[in-house]
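Self-study notes.
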Amino acid sequence: MQRVRFLARVTALAVVVLVGVGACALDPQADGAGGSTPGPVGLTEGASGASASPTPEQPVTSPSAQPSRTASPKPSRSPEATKTTKPKPKPSASAGCPQGEHQRAVETYLTRLGGFGTLTVDGEQSAADCAAIKKFQVRYGISPSSGRAGPTTYDVAKRLAATDTARCKAGSRLTFCVDLTRQTVWAMRGGEVVMGPTVTRTGMSGYATPAGTYSVGRKNPREWSNPYEVWLPYWQQFNGGIGFHETTTYLHNGAIGSHGCVNLLHRDAVRLWELGSVGTRVVVIGRRPGT
């Protein structure tokens, strides 16, 4: 009887020991009986960038010692947002009409001459100034007629504004007046100007147009020049082979000149032709510079 009791106690003790060992070997994180013991990190899983041990080229740094540069990235900005654009200037009143180097002088001369519009003498181009200068350039055959107060426009305006019509002693008769110094032509009758001063180009060096008092001897609407083989429109001869006629070249080319004749723009040659007749008095004064 005592032997049976001893064996029962030994058997109960063995059961208690086995249950305790099995309980400690179980993984409390396992989701079922028979879970395997987890291995160390890095051995049972492939190392990732987050869990891999740092290499010597990537020393470990504490977040408090060096804040991450990518923790709070700056928002990207589009080229349109970063591009600096300047406001477009408002078009000026004289847009498309360049200002020349003789702006103030031309404004002054055209104001003195009158008849070309209202100009403001301030040396600054405006829409009104541009229109007036263009009108002047068209009237006197200046090319291009862009409204720019350049050298030719300045020269023509200055010569016309400086012309003193009273210097021509016309008397009561119709008289064609030629100012060689200023290279201008006009017509008078009875002390009154019947054709205002306009531009001309007279004889070049070696062929200077002589000053003096003459009269129209012959007229021809289309005269042929034998020595130079060229037609001379609206011809009015007054001194040998010298006479008034429409120019056959650009009048404002100052590097050349006539062989003594008085060259005129088309509209002026026509007007002088309409006014004159055989016997009309011609007065030539001054001397063309350089001749």
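Second protein, same conventions, sequence then structure:
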Amino acid sequence: MRQVRFSARVVALAVVTLVGVGACTPERQADPGGRGGGLAQAGSAERETGAGGSSGSDQRTRPEPKPTRTKSKPKPKPTPTKAKPKPAPKPAAAGCPLGEHQREVETYLARLGGFGRVTVDGRQSAADCAAIKKFQQRYDIRPAAGRAGPTTYDVAKRLATTDTKRCKAASSGTTFCIDLTHQTTWALRGGKVVWGPTVTRTGMKGYATPAGTFTINYRNIKEWSDPYEVWLPYWQHFTQGMGYHQTTTYLHDKSIGSHGCVNLLPADALRAWELGKVGSRVVLFGRRPGT
């Protein structure tokens, strides 16, 4: 009897064991290794933690350790090729470019004087730059950047080569002199230059200012021109509707000119007005090129 009961217990234990194994066995995974993301049914541990997918149930409770990164040796940076150092420019060279007439302008400014120290060597320097700028500002040469360009060269040459002795002064009072060839003008008193030489612009082609000796016979600090409908500041008339006055356009534009008048820069027109009066002598000689 005891033997039968023992056999029945063995059989029952075997049945229980077989049923438990069947309930816990998962279906075959698509990725047998369990690391490639293959699908599988979640076991009891997965249901408790909420984990799913192919990773183990400790994915969130115990994060996978981060892989140890081996410090790689830094790659040596390429040594840059050192360029040969350029010679340092002379003072003011960067802001005062070299012009194509540098040496000529230096020569004429040295002859004229009054604009600062210049070195006649054809090279730009701080002193040269300052002198050229001062010259350009005085004669309204634009831009006044210190560059010895064509206009600066032309004005400097005309002024430096003007011969003030060619003009015969009156025995008394002021004599205004106008060199039509050089397009310059100045004033004499007692045989001495008291103003200029400075630049002017006379009549254009078809309206050439005549050479000769005249007298100022009418003055008006601001005259209205009827035919040309423009104001003429510091007007001093000497012949045939022609006279000294302040320019109304850019004086150094040689493509145009006056209708016979003697155009002056503002500061020069004021100075001529201060020196002149009715009865002052005006001497014109030469001829404007191209007229």
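Instructor comment on the second fold: DSSP finds six helices and nine strands in the chain.
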